[in-house]
Amino acid sequence: MAEFTPFQSSFSDCMPMYAPAQQVADYLDAHQGWFHRCAQPMQVEPIGKTGYALGLGRFGALGYELEPRIGLDLLPAEGRTYRIQTVPVPGFTPEDYQVDFQASLTLVEMPLSPELAPELPHLSVMTQVEWHLDLGVAVHFPRFIKVLPETLIQRTGDGLLRQIVRQVSRRLTRRVQEDFHHSQGLPMPKPVHQFRWWRRHDQRRC
Fold it and tell me: Residues of the chain with pLDDT > 70: what percent?
């Protein structure tokens, strides 16, 4: 039986939207349209009514590479919170890795000051999409990796986690933000200079 080395981390961030929470929710509910657009260039295939199989691309370190596919289920909202969780990809069972992707997105409506969006004088509220991701990856490393020092193996696994977060969460949330504002005819929120689109949970700042 293959021996897997587990890695676990959490990430949080937030995404401003220049619209009321209900308008953002209506957009997120219609994921059959935006998810395919925003996930590009990742390969996307539907799984049932709310799930998608994603081909994430190629990742590697220390001469070892993976080309993972994962299934994500976009669950219906509970209140103003959406959850995304991993689901099996039909007909596909990876042998070298396991991914546990558990994310939540919460819509928080707040006042919009004229200084933030002077081009939207009619809009008094905005929505902050606060997201949190618990990500676990277990990797079956080949023998030439297992003989390396444990600290080096840990850094390799942490690097794979960061690459997956960049590929799935960081890029996807940025493109969702762009797609939403474009589809609604709204200007994009101006970036905050010290704001990073992804960070570890203990460094979170909206």
Answer: 89
Cα 138 to chain center, whole Å? 18
DSSP string, 73-136: EEPPPBTTEEEEEEEPPTT---SSEEEEEEEEEEEEEEE--TTT-TT-TT--EEEEEEEEEEEE
Distance CA 52, CA 37 (A): 13
At 54, which helix (H) or strand (E)?
Answer: strand 51-55
| Residue closest to 4 by CA, chosen among 83, 78, 100 | 100
Q: Residues 105-140: pLDDT tens digits?
A: 999 999 998 888 888 888 899 999 999 999 888 888
Maximum C-alpha span of the chain: 63
pTM: 0.84
